[in-house]
Write a structure and sequence with these properties.
This protein is about 40% helix and about 25% strand. By secondary structure, it is α+β, with helices and mostly antiparallel strands. The chain has a single domain, classed as FAS1 domain, CATH 2.30.180.10. It has a 7-stranded mixed β-sheet with strand order 2-1-7-6-5-4-3. A hairpin with a 2-residue loop joins strand 5 and strand 6. The longest helix has 10 residues. The protein is globular.
Length: about 140
């Protein structure tokens, strides 16, 4: 009996497969970042992924700005991407890292693992070209 290799997905493919990142994926596509994340030869990346519920709960003014200000949208999307693979246990020791928007992200463990005061609600979803960390909110401060 022949064995088939288990296909591990890129971070972009995993976001789509999960099904609850539709808004995030749509915005990544709109900015052109999705293609970079879907390239198996690029990365690794750590994606701090907000889900659809997180976008739904943004203040209307913030959501409108995301939809109408392309430069702001791209910075917000890049806020959620770190060059390199960063697992949850790495965050305990690293304490801070710079994202691809050029902003510093700070990790804390006072009330569970969080980044810039946003809780990481699902950790270490391993992909071919990186890892997903699921957030409990959108990182909109740029």
């Amino acid at each position: 009996m022949a064995q088939t290799a288990l296909k591990v997905l890129t971070v972009a493919e995993k976001l789509v497969e999960k099904g609850y990142f539709k808004t995030f994926v749509s915005l990544l596509r709109e900015t052109g970042i999705y293609d970079m994340l879907n390239d198996i030869n690029s990365g690794p990346y750590t994606i701090l992924a907000p889900n659809d519920y997180d976008f739904f709960n943004l203040p209307q003014e913030t959501f409108d700005k995301l939809m109408n200000d392309k430069a702001y949208l791209k910075k917000v999307m890049l806020n959620h991407i770190i060059q390199g693979e960063l697992l949850a246990h790495d965050m305990l020791y690293k304490r801070s890292v710079r994202n691809m928007a050029g902003n510093d992200l700070y990790f804390d463990t006072a009330n569970g693992l969080s980044v810039n005061d946003v809780r990481i609600i699902e950790q270490d979803i391993i992909c071919d070209n990186g890892v997903l960390q699921v957030l409990g909110s959108v990182l909109t401060r740029v």
